[in-house]
Amino acid sequence: MTAKELRRLYLDFFTQHGHAQTPSSSLIPDNDPSVLFTTAGMHPLVPYLLGEKHPGGKRLCDCQKCLRTDDIDEVGDSCHLTFFEMLGNWSFGDYFKRESIVLSHEFLTKVLKIPQEKISISVFAGEGDIPADEESPAIWESLGYPKERIHAFGKKENFWSMAGAGPCGPDTEIFYDTGKEPCGADCSPACSCGKYIEIWNNVFLEYNRDSEGKVTPLAVKNVDTGLGLERVLCLLNNKETVFETELFAPVLEEISALSGQKYEDNKRTFRIISDHLRAAVFILGDDKAVAPSNVDQGYVLRRLIRRAYRYLSNLNAPDEATVSIAKKIVELYGEDYPELVRNSEFIYEKLEKETKAFRKALAHGLKKAEKFLANLPKGGTLSAEKAFKLYDTFGFPVEFTQELCAERGFGVDMEGFRELFAQHQAKSRQGAAQKFKGGLADSGEMTTKLHTATHLLGAALRRVLGEDVFQRGSNITPERLRFDFSFDRKMTPEEIAETEKIVNDAIAQKLPVNCSEMSVEEARVGGAIGVFGDRYGERVKIYTIEGISNEICGGPHVDNTGELGKFVIKKESASSAGVRRIKAVLE
To answer: Of the four, 152, 225, 267, 551, which is 20 to 30 A from 365 by CA?
Structure first.
């Protein structure tokens, strides 16, 4: 079975069961500072899980582009991926546990023809103030699953919640039994021995957790599910790993042709290169035009490109290999994700530019490494601090530092390096949690006001700077808004002041903020602002501020501009090439 066939089978099955198919959202979340990237199918749908009405109705399905970097250093094994596709189906206050479980069972056993005896289940056993989910195991049993293949676990395994306050609930996970021998008497879907592979997760959002951690039942209950396309494709085609599927095989062949090396002799290296460049292509190919930089999404992108380039260098591949591999990836995915073709020149240009920049950084880093090594006694050990500096400052994979030292008869304090790396990861995660707290899950009063203010700001910028200005991204916390827009020079003080004045005049007029639903074509004809094409479903929400703004958006918004207060631009700066950034507050 091909990836295209799997996507189609899934989406057709759920549309036949009353679900509206929606296209994949951007990899860069809209107005959601809780994450840098869309990490799951539910992220673009948070407003609807919180009560917003979706234009597509109460049942949706899609194939969502996702990207996670928490385990970036694990990539290279048989299963970890940075970029992946998540098939999902949702119910917003419509069906709940029984229909969700029955639909999953039917798709797996009747459409994909997976033998029922190969499927094992996990459910929530209850923990603390949350009672056990007794309904789900009863439903699975009624479908013919014996009790010994239904495993109950606590919150760590089978309870889903957002990073902060918001909807939460038990889940039931579906596992494929590979047939491997159990690792011991306690072997179950909770262990990582490889016998059980998770393929689907059905989350039942029936509670709400407030900012103090108190959990109460939700009035409207939702279902959020996710099935990993690459993982299921691997199982259906009896492949040992996802890297042997048709989604990676042509890329691995390209790496082999460029380097003269064989995949069988360099599996980990080939996997890292193919994974990282695939992720980089999808970030660069997004219509929000993220470029490599030292902050946020741009920093992650830079790390992916540079890490891939380093491993290509280890294979003695030519410098142009990154672009050659990127072209193969665009060829593989272009039909299903047209934005990659649409933005292909941007992809190749940024990859080439970043490769050249990293070559210079490597040359500088090698000089620094040589200085470190010159002061070591014969047979000495490079300190953890210096090895980490080479990693953190110059982007040297620690394996490269080890190779460099080994060639000269030196060792590396790897235990110390791992400690420093663990501290670095912990600080990064703490910083991210602090930096990105809030978001659409926090649809509080100030977040809602700032969301509406971004519409006024975008309209004001088009009036002051020209109609060619359009939004490239935004990020909202309860404290401020950040708005990225296409413009190729620094704004003058006069332009900033005029932009502020237009926004505040609109606020002073106390204009109503009206919401309507219509087809994409009706929105286009009506002059609504939005990235038309692949991103929206058949029906969209339009928020209109008469005479000021007419824009496609998912909300949330105030009812009247008079609720906003005084709008103040705090900073205007460059974001990336051809993109400027404004930070503003409401006082």
So the answer is: 267
Cα–Cα distance, 176 to 10 (Å, whole number): 18
Q: pLDDT (tens digit, 9 = 90+) per residue, 372-428?
A: 999 899 899 999 999 998 887 776 767 778 878 988 899 999 999 999 888 876 665
Distance separating the N- and C-terminal Cα atoms of the chain: 57
Length of the chain: 587
SS3 313: helix
* Burial of residue 532 (number of CB atoms within 10 Å: 0-12, 13-18, 19+): middle
Other beta carbons less than 10 A from residue 214's beta carbon: 11
Which tokens go with 417? 């390096």
72-128 pLDDT tens trace: 777 877 778 999 999 999 999 999 999 999 999 999 999 999 999 999 999 999 998
Segment 303-330, tens digit of pLDDT: 899 889 989 988 999 989 999 999 999 9
d(CA 26, CA 341): 15
Element (H, E) at 349: helix 344-374
CA distance 170 to 161: 9
The single residue listed with the structure tokens 């903020």 is 513
In whole angstroms, give the CA distance from residue 170 to residue 60: 20
Q: Which of 223, 272, 256, 238 is nearest to 83 (CA)?
A: 272
> Of 45, 93, 54, which Cα lies nearest the Cα of 223?
93
Q: Are 222 and 93 in contact (CB under 8 A)?
A: yes
CA nearest to 229, candidates 401, 12, 66, 58: 66
pLDDT band at 265 (very low <50, low <70, confident <90, very high): very high
